[in-house]
Structure formats: C-alpha cells, structure tokens
Write the structure tokens for this entry.
Amino acid sequence: MPRAEIVVPFFGENSKKAKLVQWHVKDGTAVRIGESLATLETRKVVTDLECYQEGILHHIIREGELVEVGSSIGYLTTDEVEGEDERCQVTLELTTAEIEALDSVRESTSREEFLRKCLQEKLAKSDHLRG
C-alpha cells in the first residue's frame, strides 16, 4: 500500500525543531484533503498541518514530542495500487501534414492544445471506422 509521509515544514532560519502539540485526528482514521491533522509549535509560530491527500492517518510521533524540521510525524496510506497514476500516456502518430500544421500554429496555439485537438480527431475517426 502506498505511503505518503507527513513532515514538519520549514518555518524559517531560526526554527530547527517543532513540538507536536496535538493530533486532531485519531491514529487509523480516514482523512480528507484540507482536514486539519495536527498542531505544531515553534518558539515563534503555532500552526496546523492540513491534509494534502485522502488516506488513512498513522501517527509516528506522540503529542508533546519535539521533532526536527523535515522529519516525519506520521504518514497516510491510500487504496491506490503502487505505481498507479491518474494520467495516461498516449502515443500519437502524426502525419507529415499534421507536423507541418503544428509548426505553423506554434505561435498562436499551445503545443498541448494542438496535440489534444489532433488526438480528439484521431479518436473520432477511429470510432467512426469501428462504428
């Protein structure tokens, strides 16, 4: 199961450690993006750490402990399969005419926008041929 570390952020040059004041979510609980996970305190700052992805929270550090900046206080496990990604990779074979068209519109259209349009046209043609 993939694991995403929850680390103590950088607070400034003079803050090398922070105290974990309180966990706002119990160990083993499902959390959502934006949810407050814990409160950290340095000599100058008190801040809440927000969740940056959904998953199950696992504590590593107990309340009241001092932790160094950049060290892990906990982690999230997710249901994603290791290596799984929401994006997909597509190989798009362009004709010479399409490549020339890409070169001609380079200044007026982004490359991504042009390639997206080519892909949509090719998918529409393939659906039409199958249909």
Notes: Residues 81-89 have pLDDT under 50 and may be disordered.
